[in-house]
Amino acid sequence: EAQVTQNPRYLITVTGKKLTVTCSQNMNHEYMSWYRQDPGLGLRQIYYSMNVEVTDKGDVPEGYKVSRKEKRNFPLILESPSPNQTSLYFCASSFDIGYGYTFGSGTRLTVV
Amino acid sequence: DQQVKQNSPSLSVQEGRISILNCDYTNSMFDYFLWYKKYPAEGPTFLISISSIKDKNEDGRFTVFLNKSAKHLSLHIVPSQPGDSAVYFCAASSMNRDDKIIFGKGTRLHILP
Predict the structure, then answer these.
(1) A61 touches chain B (CB under 8 A)
(2) Cβ contact (<8 Å) for B43 and A41?
(3) Which of A63, A91, B26, B49 lies most in the core, judged by the most C-beta atoms within 10 Å?
């Protein structure tokens, strides 16, 4: 089944403790992206990647890092999480940047 | 500055009636528009799209209308069903410029029994 898989689904962590949210897609998509969804703000893009080893900042990149060493994986790294990064995170992929995306099921992160 | 605007945070519609969700955009370079549907605890799923060369696209109960001169699009759901209760995101991109998709803030649709 074609899908985008994120892990974990839920995570509670403490301020400053580094964490990684994994994202993997099995559709051989070139384009991958991370979004966060917050009440009243909709989906905001954090980082995106056009291809392996090519990453770019989205609208809200501060406090996040990403890597794209392989086509299928696009992990989101929070080096020193803070409470304002408490949010619902979605990974998405597409065969091209402007076409319809396939989203993962989301990761609900709480930073205390 | 918001390039894609969904001005109604929520909308309630009686089951069986028509649901109309609206979306406005400001960037005249946008030429491809999409609607996504999102249930709680799930990722958004692609619903329907329209290219700027068309003014209407229909898929079953869902129809998207595009008014380029007004920079406005709308999603019509007829008839509305309980399973349509969800958050709907409007999105736009510029295929010619190879730009990313920009999302609106979403509209929560409640279908009333």
Answers:
(1) no
(2) no
(3) A91
pLDDT of residue B69: 95
Instruction: Please check the confidence at residue A46 and state whether its pLDDT lies above 90.
Output: yes
Q: Say if CB A32 and CB A68 are below 8 A apart.
A: yes
Tell me which residue of A112, A96, A110, A111 sits closest to A33, measured CA to CA: A96
Interstrand relation of A42-51 and A31-38 (parallel, antiparallel or unpaired) = antiparallel
Residues 6+ apart with CB under 8 A from B88: B6, B21, B35, B36, B37, B38, B47, B75, B106, B107, B108, B109
Give CB contacts under 8 A, 24+ apart, made by A78-83.
A78/A18, A78/A19, A78/A20, A78/A21, A78/A109, A79/A18, A80/A15, A80/A16, A80/A18, A81/A13, A81/A14, A81/A15, A81/A16, A81/A17, A81/A18, A81/A19, A81/A109, A81/A111, A82/A15, A82/A16, A82/A111, A83/A15, A83/A111, A83/A112
Set of chain A residues whose Cβ sits within 8 Å of the Cβ of B43: 4, 90, 92, 103-106
> Using CB atoms, which residue from B42, B100, B106 is nearest to A97?
B100
Query: For B36-80, what is each residue's pLDDT tens digit?
Result: 999 988 999 999 999 999 999 999 999 999 999 999 999 999 999
Kindly state whether B56 is in contact with chain A, defined as any CB-CB distance less than 8 angstroms.
Answer: no
